[in-house]
TrEMBL record:
Residues 2-120 form the Response regulatory domain. SUPFAM superfamilies: C-terminal effector domain of the bipartite response regulators, CheY-like. InterPro entries: CheY-like_superfamily, NreC/VraR/RcsB-like_REC, Sig_transdc_resp-reg_C-effctor, Sig_transdc_resp-reg_receiver, Tscrpt_reg_LuxR_C, WalR-like. The modification 4-aspartylphosphate is found at residue 51. CDD domains: LuxR_C_like, REC_NarL-like. GO terms for molecular function: DNA binding. Pfam families: GerE, Response_reg. Residues 142-212 form the HTH luxR-type domain. This is DNA-binding NarL/FixJ family response regulator.
Amino acid sequence: MRIVIAEDAALIREGLTHILDHFGHQVRTVGDAPGLLAEVARELPDVVVTDIRMPPNFRDEGLRAALELRRRHPGLPVLVLSQYVEHRYAAELVEAGRGVGYLLKDRVGDVAEFVAALDRVAGGGTVIDPEVVRKLLAQRRMRAPLERLTSREREVLALIAEGGSNNAIARRLAVSDAAVAKHVNNILAKLDLPPSTEHHRRVLAVLAYLRG
């Protein structure tokens, strides 16, 4: 894959480059948000990896650049890799569609898992660290239509938000796959999510949960 990395810390930037080179990927790097926008315009990469806080103000430049890239290049896969959770823009990034990820640097403890997550995002999947989900939820209170859900349905939806498949959720809750499928169908119906692809409906359900 052709990857553009936006990271102002030289050691992290070089470390990521070394790792991804080892896995056979072509990597270009930049140190700020304007550089990211320019490099993507030149290279049209397969996926972007960006930090959030970068020069000149070290606030949310990287994340805002990622959202701008999604507007300029619809469907461009973007993986945010940061120490921080920006509550406003995190939900907006996920809402932008498939091919997005949000991982926390201090919780990435395995190189192979990181590369697998990057591959998943590049392939159109969604990868969100459970800690990001928890921090977003801590900023929001439950409200309708989530109030329609039973306690078990909320539990299932929380596990969906953490990236669990029906089978994984069934194992976690010690119930059958059929029971989980029934809960998922009830959740989608109560959240007024019309029939579509299963993946898309689950992402919309998670967004509703994050905003609840």
